[in-house]
Design brief:
Helix content: over 70%
Largest sheet: none
Order of helices and strands: HHH
Mean pLDDT: 90
Strand content: under 5%
Structural class: mainly alpha
Number of domains: 1
Distance between the termini: 42 Å
Number of helices: 3
CATH class: Mainly Alpha
Low-confidence stretches: none
Radius of gyration: 16 Å
Oligomer: single chain
CATH architecture: Orthogonal Bundle
């Protein structure tokens, strides 16, 4: 899946879905690290992809937090 398509998909998710996706990606990264330590990792590029997915999920989650905070500031004024 291309990165831009993945980010678009992430932006359509709600907070709970993002948390679930993040937990899944972190768990996947753990398994890849274990395979790497045991020298059974078939595609080392997978680790880079998962690391980027984690960063993308965290970025989208933070964007949503900031948008929500901006919306609350506008209501207070």
């Amino acid at each position: 899946m291309k990165s831009k398509d993945h980010v678009k998909e992430l932006r359509t998710m709600n907070a709970d879905q993002l948390e679930l996706a993040l937990k899944d990606a972190v768990k996947n990264m753990f398994h890849l690290r274990c395979q790497s330590a045991a020298e059974r990792l078939e595609a080392p590029s997978e680790m880079r992809q998962v690391r980027r997915q984690i960063a993308q999920i965290k970025t989208v989650r933070r964007e949503k937090e900031l948008a929500l905070a901006r919306g609350q500031k506008a209501d207070k004024k």
